[in-house]
Amino acid sequence: MSFANLLGLWVAATLTIAILSFLYRDNPLYKFAEHVYVGVSAAYFIIYSAKFTMELQLINEFKSNLEAYLQQGSTSGLVEALLLIIPTILGILMLTRWVGPKIGWISRWPIAFTIGLGAGLGITGGIQGVLLPQVQATIEPLWVSPFSGANLWAAVGSLLMILGVVSTLIYFYFSRPHRGFIGVVSRIGIIFIMVSFGAAFGATVMARVSLLIGRLYFLVNEWIGGTIDFIQAL
Amino acid sequence: MKFIRWVTNIDRRIIFLLMFVVVLVPILIDIPLETDVGPTVEAAYTAVDTLPPGSVIMLSVDYDATSYPECHPMIVAVSNHAFSKGLRIILVAHIPTGLPLGQAAVEEAAFEYNKLHKQEYDAAIKQAITTYPDTSSVEFRQVREDAAVKYKKRYGVDYVNLGFRPGLASIMVGMGREIRDFYAQDYKSTDVDSLPMMKRVHNYEDIALLASFAHGKQVEYWIQYAGARYGQKIIAGVTGVVIPDLYPFLQSKQLSGLIGGLKGANEYEFLLGRKGLGTKGMPAQSTAHILVIFLIVLGTIFEFILSILSRRKS
Amino acid sequence: MKRRVPLIITFLMGVLMVVTFFIPREPFGSFEQRMLVWFSILGGFTLLLGLDSLVKHHFRRIIRKRKDSFYSIVTLVSLFGTLAAGIVTWAKYGTPLEFASLEQIGSFYWVYWWIMVPLQSTVFALLAFFIASAAYRAFRARTFDATLLLVAAILVMIGKMTMGVVPAALILAVFLVAAGVYRFFVREPVLGIIFGSIGVALGVLVIIFPAAKIAQIAPQVQEWIMSVPQMAARRGILIGVTLGAVAMSIRIILGIERTYLSST
């Protein structure tokens, strides 16, 4: 291991312990680490924006199109290059928010652009990508699991699934009072929803625990282990 | 009654300490364990495993360090798997702060592959020198290239890193027409056209499989905008929190496989015969689960007792 | 200007996206593609949006010498230090993200790997402790629904273990019996008998069967819960939410929903 990485290990371990110290109580060390985090991540966004959008998507694109025009006389190159000015202006308009509300309202134009585009994509994406395939997959006759063969158990599962989907939908249907038949079905819906929330909670516990494992694994194996390796190599 | 009240209001730092110990001890001991492989991980593994050599697989880094222990072992495992199967990797990222993680996974997988096959490569070069002593000859170059194809993973030939672009859904839709409209250059500002493996890759038709490693809604976006619209085959490696959201898509076959959480990473590593963080973390995961289950049950039983006692009183 | 122009832009963009979906031919296709590229470029500018308030806030705190101004200095030093690291690495390698630069102290990748990653992941690792504490204090099985939720959660957790399945299952059995007993006290004897007998049966089964068999069945139970009842409810919710989202998108395009305009 290089010295750079050994130093890195110790920096990382110090910061890890600083954050974990919050569990005992809020303290200056934790606050310090927290503020480093805010600063570093803000810098990342700036560099990413500069590298990937400003350089690659704007400047280099502009240059290559302009070169195509200057060297080969391609007019489409010129048009492409000039058209890039529009998103640049829109982007700058977006940043008028920095100045304040007096000029900041103009940032609504580019925001309207993104909102409109997102909404348009959302309509077709939602219908084609979710609604149609999900409904279709529900009404397939006696569904057979893609991962287990066809059997009675799978058929029971598929009937349960239909019941679950329909009753959940009815539970969330508030235009009619949940009485009588609808009341019974929506009660069944609640049972499915409870199982679903329970499963989600179990999965969340799992995820949170994994994050801690990652950090303690780092402290034990990479930090202590790595330092020992470094000393032995000397 | 008093005792139970005291126990239920115990200082939470004691529970923190319990959690800490329960996770730390298995990590210190390092217990080797086998695992059963679930159907969703097996499907993901098969999806990668059955691709013909030379196919292009796109890895999308849709996570960052906030879910490092879950998603990172997955992308490491899939990268290694892809290289061992002779697949080519395109790396993209939709979470800016996640890109370097994916980059490290792929670069390290290439490094590991090259180290593993170094002897074979050197032997092939040695053989070539004895056959064609003139190292500038066309024949020698051809043999050297053949050896490199077999035993070396090179940037631009076997993997590329297209970097990060903002826009998520817009990029997913746009890549169905032409990748270059968004990624004209890679993360080093090299023209994509000058990278050998990208020459014939233009849109989803040239990508055999897309693997999204995500800690949020990104997989659902991929399914809507690349899957439904362009018929792209998709597998996903996600954090535990996201797993339940994706089961409807597994059943509708919009998703061809799912690696879920640390356990999923563990299963994938098991199939691959690798021991990464997924495998090494699972004992601690198990003990922590027992602790959480125990705490839930203990908490509710105390609650039952308190509730019954207060009913009696009233 | 302040309201009408944005509404027109939103309407045109939304309609364009829907139209090009159905008519992907030229000139619609390439026009849509150009808009998508512009959207991506605009995204690059939005990365910078929160920056001014962050910098202003911390500068102000330093100038006014508030008691926490030291931490504001820390934030600004980290921000400009990382920026400098990024620019230097970029100039040297042609990209800020050169993997080989991990070997150099203070390079952009080095800062990422040894400062950003530990900070980000440890902050989230804290949640493991809080969820353990919440499990003990917050979750109560007073009603039937809550009991069901917890049983599902515990079964999922048991299914995601590679060791200790038997003790975990026994704890679950104890929980079911306790829940059954409690049901008697709240005068729901039928549910009480059901919970109690399932608990006893589970306990007996776990003791009788070999541990290896139990460890094999647990993940299958988990898989079944996930792929049948959980999936069904999730799909119901998904369909509902998507219908809502599509309706909302239509409202936005038609200018009925305008809350996004009031943010400035």
TrEMBL record, chain A:
Transmembrane segments in this chain: where? 6-24, 36-59, 79-99, 111-132, 152-174, 181-207
> Taxonomically, what lineage is the organism?
Bacteria, Bacteria division WOR-3
- Alphabetical UniProt keywords: Membrane, Transmembrane, Transmembrane helix
Specify the protein name: Uncharacterized protein
**Which species is listed as the source?**
candidate division WOR-3 bacterium
TrEMBL record, chain B:
Query: Is Membrane among the key words of this record?
Result: yes
Q: Where are the transmembrane segments?
A: 12-29, 288-309
Question: Which keywords does the record carry?
Answer: Membrane, Transmembrane, Transmembrane helix
Report the superkingdom from the record.
Bacteria
Protein name, please? Uncharacterized protein
Question: What species does this protein belong to?
Answer: candidate division WOR-3 bacterium
TrEMBL record, chain C:
- The domain of life is Bacteria
Sorted keywords for this record are: Membrane, Transmembrane, Transmembrane helix
TM region positions: 7-23, 35-55, 70-91, 111-136, 148-178, 190-215, 236-256
The name of this protein is Uncharacterized protein
**Organism, as annotated:** candidate division WOR-3 bacterium
